[in-house]
Structure formats: C-alpha cells, structure tokens
Automatic annotation (TrEMBL):
Entry-linked Gene3D superfamilies: TolB, C-terminal domain
Organism: Amycolatopsis acidicola
UniProt region (Disordered), positions on chain: 1-31
PANTHER family: BLL1406 PROTEIN, VIRGINIAMYCIN B LYASE
One Pfam family, short name: SGL
Alphabetized InterPro entries for the sequence: 6-blade_b-propeller_TolB-like, SGL, Vgb
Protein name (record): Gluconolaconase
Domain SMP-30/Gluconolactonase/LRE-like region, first and last residues per copy: 53-269
Length: 551
C-alpha cells in the first residue's frame, strides 16, 4: 500500500501531528490519510460532516451553544466567535443518543437520552450519572427556577417534573400526542409543542388543566421565547421558524429554512436553529439566514446507482442524489410517501427504488409520485437488499441472522443462523453472496444453507460484485478489499478509510425512535458507477468516497 494523496487533497482541514495524524478543527472523526494500492485514486464526492446531525440546542452558561446529536451519541459545544467545536460528551461515553439539553444555575448539564428512555446529568466536574431510566422516548427538557421538567415524545407521552435526588417524578400531563422541546414563558407557565396534533400548549409548573395556545402549525417540535415574550417555534415539516403571540395564538413566519428543523436557542439576542442534517442556521432580524455550521450527511448508509448513472445515498432520515451542484434531496422523513428511516437501497426500475427500513419493512418507493408500497413487514433489523439477475429480491435480517427472499405478501427463508448478516449482492451467475459481519466472512447462500466464499475479515459490511471481482468494505479493518471470485485471490485497494467506529471506541446500541425508527446502526455501503468507479459510504466522517482505477 502507499499513500495515494496528501491530507489536503483528501479534503482535511487542520494541523498535522508527527506520524501523519490529521486533527480537524472540530471534526466529528479524526483519521489518518488513507493508503491506496498502485493505480487507484480517491476523492470525496461530499465533504465530511462536522456533526452527527443536530438536535437539541441550548446556550450554555459559558456562552457557547451546546448541540445534542442523537445518532452520534455526542454532545458538542460551539464557540460562536471562533466556530470551534469541542466534544463535551463523546460517542461511546456515558450519554447515549442525547436529544435535548438544559442547564441549571450550578452549571449542571441535563440530557434526555431518547432511545434509552433516560435522563442523565453531567456535573460541572465532568462526572455523569443517570437520573432516571424509566421515561420512554424522553425528549424535551428544560430547567425553570432550578426545577427540572421533561416530556416523552411518543403517542401517549407524559410531561413530568424530575427531582435531582432521584425521587418519584410528578406527572403534570399525560396521554399527549408526541410532545417535544419545551420552555417556560415569561408568565412562568410551561409551553410545549405537540407534534401529533400540530399544536402548542401550556400548563402551570405545579400542574392543573393544560391550555391550547396555537393550532394548525407545520409539525412544531420546539418552543423558546424571545426578549419580547413571544414564542419562537421550529416546524419540522415545513422548515419554517414561527413567531407566535402567546395571547392570541397568531403566528408570523420569521424565516423559512428547510424541512427537518429540530430545535432552537437564543444566544443573547441571536437566534439559532438546528436541522437533522447538522446544519445550524442563524435567523437574522430581516428574515434572512446565515449558515453558522454547514449541514452534511448523518451516516451515510447504503448506496445505489440508478439507470441514469446517478449516485443515490440512503442517509436514514434523508435520501439524496448526487448532482453537478452537490446533494439534492429526493425525500425525507416528513415528506409525503417517504417509506421511513431507509437503511438498504437498490435502484430497481426507472424512478423506483426497493428499500429496507429500520422499522422492519421492505418497501417499493417511487419518490417522483410520492408513493410507497410495503412488500413485507415485521422484520428484526433489516439491512442489505439486492435484486438477482432473474429479478428475485433478497434482504438480510440482522436481528435474527436470516437471509430472506421477498415477494409481495410473501417471504422465503433462504438461510438462518448467520452472525449479523448485513450486505448482500449477486454474482453474474445468480449466486447470492452475504457479508456475515459477526463472523468476518462472505458466504454464498444456497438451497442447503450458507457456504464460506472467503473469510478473514474483521467486520465486512457493504459488498458488490463487478466483472468477477467481489468488493468488500471491511468496517472493522477500515479497508476496501477486492476478491477474485474464481481464484479467491484478494488484494487490498485502500486502508485507513473513515468507516466504522473511531479506534478504541465501542459505540453503544441505538435502540430507535418509535414511531419514526426502529433500532439504528451503521452500514458502510458500496456501489459502482457505469464507468467502474466505486463509491463507499464513509459513515465515520459523514462523506461519500469515490475510488477509481486507472485504465
């Protein structure tokens, strides 16, 4: 292997340490520059992401803006003056899937861990402890006069007051239709959005009868208050930032950003909003906007190339195509007909994709007409999907270790007892190949079970067959390997790739966000363009890589 390019050509920004380690200014992943086999080149199609999406926002006592990142299990602090990001709570640490944050007067940071139903507190001394672990879909959180309030973003969710000593919570309201990020108003009442009914409500912190404040909104997911005492609310479906009179409920649009807005915060008199993409945007007084942090890919997961040779990217909540001007959104979680959190994808026919979702569904999706047709459902952690030369659809069910053939309304078990089957691909002769990530091997699925084709990998995930060569993305070894299917000779194409978890980090499972998503996990996918270019999901740093061999 040899280094195929310099760190600057690879797209890194930052300083270099002895030994070639590249330290990005606030990057979410630190890596060495990849090494490439002779004759291969590599470049990024998309830049690396600085965050794992952006969810809860809160201005901290130190003046920095704290950003919760659910899928990255990370909390970062953004210095608005310098743009520097510091990781406050890292992937693999004590806080899992943080969705929202709040501070008390002593500088303690409270975080909701939405997938684990927990609320944790990180003290000013840096130590973290779990305050409660029995709050399903714990999400919105706020501190009012050092009283801590939390709600559960689920159908039938509750709004509760929690006590730092671990005492039994006090229920203020229940049977709510997905409440979210909340705040106390100048009148001392708690204001909370209800996503399921497109409304904003308020209640006294000591309890009582809730009162509706505003209705007919664009799926409000957060409320805060400006200096004039007006509600400011992000709308996840429409991408609007609204100013709402708490007395009349009348609203005006401060700005329209893009669908996927998640939360907001005021830092002094400056207003910032977050987006699922990781973009943080400042809303200026005249209604214009300024990108404080750029958005990017959250994972990415599987890849496919459509009939026009266009690369398509499954990024869970979003689905993108790569065009001349960069990424274009083909659909997202709150758009009409979107099939759900997409993990595996294959272009099937013009304008149509077959996808697997983290909710355990296999779906035919036509984004042009906003239509989805569920072919099969009820599975446990679906990942890869592929179509055979004869038109058969095969998926991997990682949760049960099965490989399944899927037809509308019917499924056939093709193999069982596998150790984390993830990627799936077909050879030209119709042989079904599966990456068995837990066993470190690629198997051929036959009528009699599964036979080893090649082993010795650490964590094989995405696989692809082209012109008799099996290409394997080994997320554990951070490498791309080619295997001649006839001779079984293998050659390493690239290593040091930004795939998988950071060295020494064991990510904790992401249990999902019902009803939006089941369990979530990484999937370093691979696809090939018509000219033989290999595309790899660099899920560690949130970019897509293009590898080409000189002709």
């Amino acid at each position: 292997m040899r280094g195929g390019f310099s760190a600057s050509a690879y797209g890194h920004r930052g300083t270099h340490t002895p030994g070639g380690r590249t330290l990005n200014q606030g990057a979410r992943y630190t890596s060495t520059s990849p090494g490439l086999a002779d004759g291969w080149s590599l470049h990024r199609l998309t830049p690396p992401s600085r965050l794992f999406g952006a969810n809860g926002l809160r201005a901290g006592p130190d003046g920095r803006v704290y950003v919760a990142q659910v899928t990255g299990s990370q909390i970062s602090a953004l210095d608005l003056a310098t743009g520097e990001l510091e990781t406050v709570s890292a992937k693999g640490g004590d806080i899992i899937a943080p969705d929202d944050v709040a501070f008390d007067s002593r500088g303690n940071l409270y975080a909701t861990e939405v997938m684990d139903g927990r609320v944790s507190v990180r003290g000013a001394d840096g130590r973290t402890r779990v305050l409660r672990d029995d709050l399903p879909s714990a999400n919105g959180i706020t501190v009012h006069r050092d009283r801590l309030f939390v709600n559960e973003c689920r159908v039938g969710g509750r709004l509760l007051e929690l006590f730092p000593d671990g005492g039994e919570p006090r229920i203020l309201a229940e049977n709510l239709a997905m409440p979210n990020a909340m705040e106390a108003g100048p009148d001392g009442l708690l204001y909370y959005p209800v996503m399921g009914t497109n409304e904003i409500w308020r209640i006294h912190p000591d309890g009582g009868e809730p009162e509706r404040v505003a209705a007919g909104l664009g799926v409000p997911d957060a409320v805060k208050f400006d200096a004039a005492g007006r509600i400011v609310s992000t709308q996840v479906q429409t991408g609007e930032v609204l100013s709402i009179d708490p007395r009349s409920g009348e609203s005006t649009v401060l700005a329209t950003v893009s669908p996927g807005l998640d939360n907001l915060t005021f830092a002094g008199d400056r207003l910032f909003v977050s987006n699922f993409t990781g973009q943080i945007t400042e809303i200026l007084g005249d209604g214009s906007t300024s990108a404080t942090l750029p958005g990017g890919l959250n994972w990415p997961l599987d890849l496919t190339v459509d009939e026009d040779g266009t690369l398509c990217i499954a990024d869970g909540t979003y689905f993108y195509v790569v065009g001349e001007d960069g990424l274009a959104t083909l659909g997202m979680l709150f758009s009409e007909g979107y099939p759900g959190f997409i993990r595996g994808v294959v272009a099937h026919s013009p304008g149509e994709f077959l996808v697997t979702t983290s909710n355990g569904e296999v779906t035919r999706w036509r984004p042009g007409s906003n239509e989805s047709e569920v072919l099969a459902r009820g599975f446990d952690q679906l990942y890869g999907i592929a179509v055979s030369p004869a038109g058969s659809v095969v998926v991997t069910e990682t949760g049960t270790g099965r490989v399944l053939g899927v037809r509308p309304g019917e499924t056939d078990e093709l193999a069982s007892g596998l150790d984390e089957p993830i990627g799936v691909a077909f050879a030209a002769d119709g042989t079904c190949l599966v990456a068995e990530a837990g066993a470190g091997r690629i198997v051929a699925v036959t009528g009699a079970g599964a036979d080893t084709v090649v082993d010795g990998f650490e964590t094989p995930q995405g696989i692809l067959v082209r012109e008799g060569v099996l290409y394997v993305v080994d997320a554990g070894a951070k490498a791309l390997v080619g295997v001649d299917l006839e001779s079984k000779a293998r050659h390493k194409i690239a290593d040091g790739l930004p795939v998988g978890a950071p060295p020494g980090v064991r990510p904790k499972p992401l249990k999902g966000l019902p009803p939006f998503s089941g369990p979530q996990g990484p999937f370093a996918g691979i696809a090939a363009g018509p000219d033989g270019t290999l595309y790899v999901s660099a899920d560690a740093d949130g970019s897509v890589l293009a590898l080409r061999k000189a002709r």
